[in-house]
Amino acid sequence: MTTFPDSRPRCPWLTVPDPLYVAYHDEEWGTPCHDERQLFEMLILEGAQAGLSWLTVLRRREGYRRAFDQFDVAKIARYADADVARLLADPGIIRNRAKVAATIDNARAYLEHFAAPGSFDRFLWSFVDGVPKKNRFHEMRDYPAQTAESRALSKALQKKGFRFVGPTIVYALMQATGLVDDHAVGCWRHGE
Fold it and tell me: Is 46 considered catalytic here?
């Protein structure tokens, strides 16, 4: 368990006392999310994290919001070569061509399959039967990198044309958006 100056115990993955990181853990991570813009944002950010630390992505989150039109799916789906060039020159995001292209492709896949309001939310949450799966992990070694649910969701997203949605990325998405509650036993947020 990790503790910082306020003495509240937190999840073992929170090892850096960065205020942004602590606020993310305390206020967002593991909280059930049904806002479709935010769900799409987290899908993109978790994919952007591949090969990097979450704190690296979290520090660029506002840059992503600005660069990607506040994660307006319809606008992103219309991006063309000039937008890709603009994004690859933007120091406020992770300038990886494959990740930028995947974001645009994911927006297009989203519009193709989830244009109806609430459909993306229902789709994601169907993989946990609409109720957060509550786990009881204690140490970092207890946390899985992926689960049967994340593998199934990953496969379903890939079948719909989404990219950068492997089962490990998808499990991180599930944790971040509260589909699973992985706050460690002993963390002040466990069992909320």
Answer: yes
Q: Give me the pLDDT at residue 90, please.
A: 98
Percent of the chain residues topping a pLDDT of 70: 98
In our burial notation (b when 16+ CB lie closer than 10 A, e otherwise), range 84-111 reads: eeebeebeebbebeebbbbbbbbbbbbe
CA 121 to chain centre: 14
Does position 4 have pLDDT exceeding 90, yes or no?
Answer: no
The answer to whether the beta carbons of residues 110 and 120 sit under 8 Å apart is yes
Torsion angle of C-alpha atoms 41, 47, 53, 57, degrees rounded to 10:
-30
- From 21, 29, 41, 54, the catalytic residue: 54
Give the tokens for residue 21: 């990181």
Q: What is the pLDDT of residues 67-112, one digit of tens each?
A: 999 999 999 999 999 999 999 999 999 999 999 999 999 999 999 9
Sign, Cα dihedral of 28, 30, 36, 40:
positive
Exactly one of 13, 24, 143, 188 is catalytic; which is it? 24
Active-site residue 29, yes or no? no
Copy the structure tokens of residue 116.
């109806």
Q: Tell me, yes or no, if 64 is annotated catalytic.
A: no
> Radius of gyration over alpha carbons of the chain, in Å?
17
Q: Catalytic pick from 21, 36, 41, 46?
A: 46
